[in-house]
Write a structure and sequence with these properties.
Number of strands: 17
CATH architecture of the largest domain: 3-Layer(aba) Sandwich
CATH topology of the largest domain: Carbamate kinase
Structural class: alpha/beta
CATH class of the largest domain: Alpha Beta
Largest sheet: 8 strands, mixed
CATH superfamily of the largest domain: Acetylglutamate kinase-like
Number of helices: 15
Shape: globular
Strand content: 15-25%
Helix content: 40-55%
Strand order of the largest sheet: 5-6-4-1-7-11-12-10
Number of domains: 2
Bound molecules: glutamic acid
Oligomer: single chain
C-alpha cells in the first residue's frame, strides 16, 4: 500500500485546496502574505520536480466583506456574492504575486458546479486546464460565487476541489485544513477521539465520524471533506487531509508528519472509462471503416478519416456508439465535434479540418482516453 508521503512523490497532477481560514486574516480582511509566499515556494518545488499543480482557493468573501464595509459576516446570498465580487480581485492578485515571486504564471478560473457536471462545459474546462498546465501555468480556481444560485457555504470549495480533480484527471487531491486529519470523534470535545491515518473506502462509519466534527469557522469541517473524498476516490484520485496552518505545509507533508490519506482503488483513467461505459446514454453513433477499427483495437484514437457515417443528433462532448461497417457496436466514446460538424469532416484528413469547418478543436474525433471498447 503506498503511503501518502509516497503518493505525493509519485503523483503527477495534484490539486491543492486552500480554505479561507488559512489564507486570510478574516478580522483584518487581509491575505496572510508570508504564509502564502511560503506555500508558493512549496508549489514551485513541486513543479520543479515535474509535477503539475492546480490550486483551488477560497477567500473571496472573507476579503471582500471589509472592503465593502460589511461589519458582520454576510448572511444573505446577495451580500456574499457582492463580497465575493470585490474580494476575488484581491484573492487572485495575492496568488498572482506570490506565484510570480517563484517565476510561476497564475491563471484564474471561476467555475460553477455545473461546469463540472454538465458534459459539454466539462470538456471545455478540462481542455482549458490541460492547455494551461501544458503551458506551465498554475490554474487558480474558485467557485464563480457571483452567479451561484444556491446558497454559498463555507466548505463548498472542498467539493469543488474534488470535482476539479475529477475533471482534470488528477491523481492526488490535498485538502489543507486547520486540523491534521480525520478523527473518530471531534478531538476538541472528546479526548478519546482516535486519529484515522488511512481510509480506503467511505463507509457509513467514516461518514458518522465526520458528522460530529466541525473545525473552526472558516472551514467546512469534515462533512464536506468526506463528500469530497467520495468524489475523489470514485474518480481514481487519492486524497489527503493535512494541517495547513503551519509554514510550508506542502514541504511538511513531503517530509512526513500526521495526515489522513484516502486511497483510491483504481487509476483516474480507468475510473473515467468506467464512467463513460456505465453512466452515459449514447446520443448517436459513428460508423468506422475496417482500418480505423483495427487502429482503435491497438489503442489509437479515432480520426475523422476513418469515419464513414454519422447518425443521430448530438453535441460536442456527448457520448456516441462506435459501430463497424456491419453495424456491430465496437464501443462508446465522448465525441469532440457535434453531429453536423462531424458529418462535414468524416472521411477527411485531420489537417483539412480547419479549412472545412473554419475552426479546429482537435485532430481526433474521439480521443482514446475518452473511449471504451466492448
Ligand atoms: N468560494 C467562497 C470564497 O471564496 C468560499 C467557499 C468555501 O470556503 O468553501 O469566499
Amino acid at each position: 500500500m503506498p503511503t501518502a508521503h509516497c503518493q505525493l512523490l509519485t503523483a503527477k497532477r495534484i490539486v491543492i485546496k486552500i480554505g479561507s481560514s488559512l489564507l486570510t486574516d478574516e478580522a483584518a480582511g487581509r491575505v496572510r502574505e508570508a504564509w502564502l509566499a511560503a506555500l508558493a515556494e512549496d508549489v514551485h518545488q513541486l513543479t520543479s520536480q515535474g509535477k503539475q499543480v492546480i490550486v483551488v482557493t477560497s477567500g473571496a468573501i472573507a476579503l471582500g466583506r471589509l472592503q465593502l464595509g460589511m461589519k458582520n459576516k454576510p448572511a444573505l446570498l446577495e451580500e456574499k456574492q457582492a463580497a465575493a465580487a470585490c474580494g476575488q480581485i484581491e484573492l487572485f492578485s495575492a496568488w498572482r504575486n506570490a506565484l510570480s515571486q517563484q517565476n510561476l504564471k497564475a491563471a484564474q478560473l471561476l467555475l460553477t458546479a455545473d461546469d463540472s457536471i454538465e458534459r459539454r462545459r466539462y470538456l471545455n474546462a478540462r481542455n482549458t486546464i490541460d492547455t494551461l498546465l501544458d503551458l506551465g501555468a498554475i490554474p487558480v480556481i474558485n467557485e464563480n460565487d457571483t452567479v451561484a444560485t444556491a446558497e454559498i457555504r463555507f466548505g463548498d470549495n472542498d467539493r469543488l476541489a474534488a470535482r476539479v480533480a475529477q475533471m482534470a484527471g488528477a491523481d492526488l487531491l490535498i485538502l489543507f485544513s486547520d486540523i491534521d486529519g480525520l478523527y473518530s470523534a471531534d478531538p476538541a470535545q472528546n479526548p478519546d477521539a482516535k486519529f484515522i491515518a488511512e481510509v480506503s473506502e467511505i463507509t457509513p462509519d467514516i461518514e458518522r465520524m465526520a458528522g460530529g466534527s466541525a473545525s473552526n469557522i472558516g472551514s467546512g469541517g469534515m462533512v464536506t471533506k468526506i463528500a469530497a473524498a467520495k468524489i475523489a476516490l470514485s474518480a481514481g484520485c487519492h486524497m489527503i487531509i493535512a494541517r495547513g496552518n503551519i509554514d510550508h505545509p506542502l514541504r511538511a507533508l513531503q517530509n512526513g508528519g500526521t495526515f489522513t490519506r484516502f486511497i483510491a482503488q483504481e487509476s483516474p483513467l480507468s475510473a473515467r472509462k468506467r464512467w463513460i461505459a456505465g453512466s452515459i446514454h449514447p446520443a448517436g453513433s459513428v460508423t468506422i471503416d475496417d482500418g480505423a477499427a483495427t487502429a482503435l483495437k491497438s489503442g489509437k484514437s479515432l480520426l475523422p478519416a476513418g469515419v464513414t457515417a454519422i447518425d443521430g443528433t448530438f453535441d460536442r462532448g456527448d457520448a456516441v456508439l462506435i459501430r463497424d461497417m456491419q453495424g456491430n457496436v465496437l464501443g462508446k466514446g465522448l465525441i469532440a465535434y457535434g453531429a453536423a460538424d462531424a458529418a462535414r469532416i468524416k472521411g477527411k484528413k485531420s489537417r483539412d479540418i480547419e479549412q472545412i469547418l473554419g475552426f479546429k478543436r482537435r485532430d481526433v474525433l474521439i480521443h482514446r482516453d475518452d473511449m471504451v471498447l466492448e
